[in-house]
Structures are given as structure tokens and as C-alpha cells.
Amino acid sequence: MKKCPFCAELVKVEAIKCKHCGSDLNDDSVSFVPSKTSSVLNSVYLSEAKNISYYQLIDGNGDIIEAEAVKFCELCSKHIIYVKKHNGNEQEARREIDALVKMVKSFYSDRASEKF
């Protein structure tokens, strides 16, 4: 396993694209540092945020459902607060949330992605 340099999640050494954030890992200029374990604390908030599918956040017209987007963002914020409160690595938690948001946004049209 190696750590994605963009989102810090573990991916297979053979991976050419990160399954967590969608970043291209095929660039030879990117060097990887193997990681034994992640120092980010997992929380119920992070689990719930990861369980929200991108299509739950948009309506049939491809527009963002504001209430669902707010719920997703609140879960992400609560996860970072949880990590801080439990003396976890806040910077890594923020990177993880940023990667999650980036991944969700990648499924939307430019208009919906910008609104999100």
C-alpha cells in the first residue's frame, strides 16, 4: 500500500487513480511515502458522510438539494471537531474531508459543482 499524495488515503501500489479522491497517480514526478497506518481518527460523522452518495445530494434536474448538502457539510465539520477534541491530526482530517468533497463534486455538472 502507498499513501495518495493528494488525499493521504491508502491505495494499492499498482493504482493509477486514487479511489478516494480520483487523483491521477500515474505521474512519475509524484513520489509516494508508504504509510503503515493513518493517524486520522475515524468518527461516526466521517462514516455517515462517506455513506452519503453523490446522487442523494442532487435532484432530477441535476440541481443541488440544499438540505442534503447542508447535512453532508455538517457531518464533515463535526468530524473535524471530533478529531480536534480527541487530539487527532486535524490537518490530515481536513485533507481527508477535502478529498471527499472533491470526489463528490467530480460527479456533478460544472454549475452544480460550483454551487456545492
Provide keyphrases for this structure.
2 strands; 43% helix; two-stranded antiparallel sheet; single chain; mainly alpha; 4 helices; 116 residues
Number of strands: 2
Number of domains: 2
In spatial order, strands of the major sheet run 1-2
Helix content: 40-55%
Describe this structure in words.
The protein has helices at residues 44-51, 66-85, 90-105, 110-115; strands at 2-3, 10-11. The protein is mostly helical. The protein has two domains: 1-35; 39-116. It has a two-stranded antiparallel ribbon. Strand 1 and strand 2 form a beta hairpin. The longest helix has 20 residues, at 66-85. The protein starts with a strand and ends with a helix. Residues 28-39 have low confidence and may be disordered.
Write the layout of secondary structure elements.
Elements: E1 2-3, E2 10-11, H1 44-51, H2 66-85, H3 90-105, H4 110-115
Antiparallel strand pairs: 1-2
Helix pairs in contact: 1-2, 2-3
